[in-house]
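job 3f2a | input accepted
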Amino acid sequence: MDAAIIARWRALSLVLLAAFLGMSLVIGAIGLLPGDVPLHDEILKGRGTALHAIARWVDYGGKWVVLAFKFLVGRPRPRGVNWGFPSGHVTAAATFAVILLYVMTRERVSPAARAVLTGLMIALVAAVGFARVILNAHWPTDVLGGVLLGAGCAAAGAWWDARHPETAQPARPRAVNGAIEIGG
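job 3f2a | predicted structure (184 res):
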């Protein structure tokens, strides 16, 4: 992979992870950020609508790194139960989205298919984030933290993979004395 692409993945991962760490420190120090409560209240006005019902179906999970930061930051959810920052669901969605986008840079994908998949991934992350707020499970900045953490970690993985292309190649079968040997 060319050096410019590797540099872009490195920059993306470092910026996203630095923003996440900075946000973690600020939220850990002061709690809710300006705009959290009004934005949260505005989204909650949509409860009971068809969009709220869809949000329930979009909601799914992610765990370990998120739990560590929930412990370190220690900010409660809107309902005041358990820790909320960052949203694990959004972290998982953002990780999946960035990994899929990276795979599309490594494979032959038409520009039209790439545009459609990119739009779908953005919509997925936005829908999961919206679902977490409308279900009253997170503050909006919990969702933003999940996006930064998931996308940052996935971008770091893409950066590493792009710098080590020899480790990304699958083992190829080869003939040895008339027999096929796998991975040797």
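job 3f2a | The radius of gyration is 20 Å.
job 3f2a | closed
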